[in-house]
Amino acid sequence: MGDIFAFGFMRLAFVGGTIVGVLAPIIGTFLVLRRYGLIGDGLGHVAFGGVAFGHLMRTDPILMALVYSTVAAVGMEQFRVKGRLGGDVAIAIFLSSGLALGLVLARLARRSTDQLWTYLFGSVIALQPGDVIQIALIAFIVLGSLWVMRRGLFFVTFDEETARASGVPVGFYNIALVLLAALTVVSAIQIVGLLLISALLVLPVAAALQVARSFRQTLVLGVGSGLLSVYGGLIGSYYLDTPPGPTIVLMALGIFLLANGARLMSRSARVLAA
Amino acid sequence: MSEPIIEIEDIWFSYGAEPVLEGVSLEVIRGDILGLIGPNGSGKTTLLKLILGLLSPQRGTIRLFGQELGRFREWARLGYVRQRGWDFERNFPASVEEIVRLGRVPRLRWGAWRRIDTEAVERALHAVHIEGLRHRPISELSGGQQQRVFLARVLAQEPEILVLDEPTAAVDPKVEAEFYKLLRKLNREQGLTILLVSHDLEAIVTQVTKIACLNRKLLFCGTPQECLASDLLERVYVGKRLMHHQHPWG
User: Could you give the number of structural domains in chain A?
Assistant: First the structure.
């Protein structure tokens, strides 16, 4: 198996994948428990608009993706809080218009579909050391912020109304969470791609929730499951010659199904024992 | 001991064109166990939400600890347990201890957890006798045990007044009696003031020191004995049986 690390791009892919494998399930835990699991999808599609705009303007597409998705994150949250529409409708509006905008701008920028493909589904082969540094920097900001805000964010996630009545600045935490989600989505563009990032935010957390008995366990098991998905997916894609992003996601799905099976079996065992 | 903790003066509130509260005035004095009763839809929960700053009145003033609500910032002095404990995700992954620790969040300085916070959590777990459950997931507990966890959370906050919205709606009568016994003990031994909302007069009449009856307007405020002697309740609850309402998620 050692030959997999003979290639520089694979070493970079493992480093970048490790960072995203840790980051996505941690922020994903808060999003899933707040029933905001689809926000990753919405932000991913909007970020695609940013990527295409970056190409059109001949600036850094990732930077543009960051700008687009952070603005959209605030917009979605405002829609949810102040609008007459639910959070799911807000996400649907941003998701479809983001993708549409991206496709139109890409056409105007005269980009081939191959180039778009790398953003939509990830391209670890094209990963440069600078990209990994960028991912690490984003992870540092997101994880640092989550660490500082963890107690208040957990309170708001558990029970928003009681947190508000206790003087916790709920609005601030909500905006902070979606902004950090936007940063996370952009950091994972090159690893799993914009269309599949929400799988890394949601699936490892869903797997962890099958067996976790506390919030802390959910975070730890979510990260474990995220890393296993990334490593399994990268190794699998190398030997099977399949695209890495989708392979990572299928790996995450497999882990979720296993965890779900384990939960059902332990429940049946308890019923039989009783 | 006659210091008013909550002063409500001529409060008016409506949802759209639907009036919910009309000119309600009420005082909660330190050391009271005040039971706020009234039929479903009488505005009890709305009044609580106004006191907690979750809603704003259209008219009237509310003062907490002598300070107008708009300027009040010391929310940690009020401990709130909402109806049904918490409102979503029955399988929320949280251990008992993690939930009780949340009570300290409003008390933390710059987010730093100190020894006094751990001590407050331990005292709260002990006060409601759930030390043995600390590592259990909340979702595995019975309705009565969950109620104790939420009470422990709010006790860990070390508030001066407990605000409880239908605290025993999800539990059976035996657990309910134990819960009220615990509240009376906290009131007696720790001097906690308690504001308790219930639609169930029978359940609380022997547990409280004062009763306020609400049905959009404040119809009565006095001792439980005065309340039972008046015919007011019959008029308020005409056609409604004062029974325990069991909820399906109990």
Answer: 1
Distance from CA of residue B6 to its chain's centroid?
13
pLDDT at A117 over 80: no
Question: How far is the CA of B74 from the CAs of A69, A132, A269, B27, B32, in angstroms?
Answer: 36, 45, 50, 19, 20
For chain B, domains (ranges, CATH) are 4-236 (3.40.50.300)
Flag the least confident range among A203-217, B99-113, B209-223, B232-246. Answer: B232-246
Distance CA B224, CA B212 (A): 9
Both structure tokens of A274: 């009783």
Comparing A162 with A117, which gets the higher pLDDT? A162
What residues make up the domain containing A142? 2-193
Separation of alpha carbons A190 and A197, rounded Å: 10
Distance between first and last Cα of chain A: 46
CB A60 within 8 A of CB A218: no
Examine residue A210 and state whether it is found in any structural domain, yes or no: no
Tell me, yes or no, whether A220 lies in a domain: no
Mutate to test the interface with A, among B48, B83, B99 (most CBs of A within 10 A): B99
CB pairs A-B closer than 8 Å: 78
Least-confidence region, from A226-230, A263-267, B239-243: B239-243
Complex-level ipTM beyond the 0.90 threshold: no
- State percent of chain B over pLDDT 70: 89
Instruction: Flag if A161 and B54 touch (Cβ within 8 Å).
Output: yes
Question: Which chain A residue has its CA at the smallest distance from B163's CA?
Answer: A165
Q: Check whether B24 has a pLDDT greater than 70.
A: yes
The CATH number assigned to the domain holding A148 equals 1.10.3470.10
Pick the range with the lowest mean pLDDT from A62-66, A210-214, B138-142, B244-248: B244-248
Among B78, B82, B90, B102, the strongest candidate for a mutation testing the A interface, having the largest count of A CBs within 10 A, is: B102
Identify whether A216 is part of a domain: no
Going through A12-132 in order, the beta strands assigned E by DSSP cover none
Domain-located, residue A65: yes
Q: Which residue of A lies nearest to B110 if distances are taken between CA atoms?
A: A148
Give strand ranges (E) for chain B.
Answer: 4-15, 18-29, 33-37, 59-64, 67-68, 78-81, 161-165, 193-198, 210-215, 217-222
Please give the C-alpha separations between residue B179 and each of A215, B79, B154, in angstroms, as whole numbers: 27, 16, 14
Q: What is the pLDDT of residues B72-84, one digit of tens each?
A: 999 999 999 987 6
